[in-house]
Each structure stands twice: as C-alpha cells, then as structure tokens.
User: What shape does this take?
Amino acid sequence: MVSVQEVMDIMEGFAPKHLAEDWDNPGLLVGSPAQRTERIVCCLDVSDGVVQQAIEADAHLIVAHHPLIFKAMKNVRTDLPLGARIAKLLKHDIAVIAAHTNLDIAEGGVNDVLAEAIGVGKLSSFVIEQQDEDGRPASLGRIGTLPTPMTIADFAAQVREALPTAHVRYVDAGPRPVRKVALCSGSGAEFIGRAAALGADAYVTGDVRYHDAQHAAELGLHVIDAGHFGTEFPVVASLRQRLADALTERKRTVEVIADTQSEDFFHVI
Assistant: This one.
C-alpha cells in the first residue's frame, strides 16, 4: 500500500506545484494525506465514469490532470453534478490529486508527451512562464522540428493518426512546408502570434475559434486544432507508467490503472 502523501511527494518530483499558474488549483482536492490505497487511477478528468472505475477497482486515489474543484465553492449541493461526485468520492474514501498547469509545463509532462506522439523533436521553450529551481526556463508548450518537411495536409493526417481523436481541423496558410512546429496542449489559441513570431511553420493546439484561425492565416501560420481532449489525453498513459515505475522503485506494491472510461465530448457525423 501507499499513502496519498507519498504519491503527492512523487508527483512533486514529476510536476512541482510551484510551476503551476497563479489561477490554477493543483494538489490534494479531496481526501486526506493519510489515506492509504493499493490501487490508483490516472485520468484526464474526474468524471462520473472515472469515479465508478475507481470504485469497481477498489482504488482509493485518483490522480487527474484537470482539477475536480477549480473555482471557490460556497456550498456542496449533492443534487448537482459536482456536489454529487464529491459526495460519492467521500462515501467510498477516494482521494483526488490534480496536476494541471504544473504538469503542462513540467519536463516529461503533457506537452512533451504530445510532441513525441506527433513526431516533433529537438524541443525548446515556447511560452516561458518562469524559471525552475535550477534557473532553466519553464515553458508552457514546446517548439521543435519534424525529421523532414511535410505538407500541412500530410502533417494534419499524421497528427490525427497519432492522437485519440476522430478528426482534426487545420488552417492551410499556403504552400509553406511544415518543418518547425510549435505546440501547446489543451487550449492555446492565444499563443498563435507567439508561434508565428518564433518562426513556426505550423502550430498544434486545441479549442481554436474562427477568428483565431483567421489571425493565423493572415500571419501565414498553419494551425492544427486536434481538440482539447486529443492533445491532452495521451499524458494519462505516460503518467500511469511514471507513477508505477516510481512506486516500484520505492518497493510499494500498488497497482496503477489508466482511465478507460473517458472519450472526447465531441463527435463528428
């Protein structure tokens, strides 16, 4: 078994809380640091399906990317979805830890997993938020290169095949080949100008709006919108493996399970 506190210590090594944005809410959100468990579920969102998976697996800890509790709560209404979910977690002694923007920024975190999945290498900083404890820049997103140039259509197809999404949308900004790629998992349309300024040929992110796409086209920047879910869900398997390896090193007999319940909210017909 392992305590929630020990898992929090491991997560601090992967994704230190000081890397998180000021508006974020990472850390222990439900339960006690003293809670002990033999199984852990890793997920993107603490959904009803994930909670049920944890109950059925007799897991007493969920490690999520998105915080279950994000804004200040003045009440816990069990007749509403969030309150009912919190009540169910407490009833079954299931604690919840979140690592959000700190896991986005951390080395080996969401953006590095995304870059590897879509074939972008030789990575460097994209949007520098702060410095880590060694004085190195801590970056939201990454910028790197493809092994060989591609057309935007071919690169978009490669991204679609690599990620858990049924479709991607892309902005074709002209005949410019794609070699240098910027990326920001989740929702990063606000950084389109930054990607163009750094000389990226294409920018991969999610949640791109119409006028964001228009702005990118005017800048001559290809954009691939692979969705919020599609660009972030790959970290779940990576996090599961990293936690499992770290617990094995500590000689803890704990099963770490990846979320098998979640899928993108958007469907295409």
Notes: The two ends are 46 Å apart (CA to CA). The longest helix spans residues 234-249.
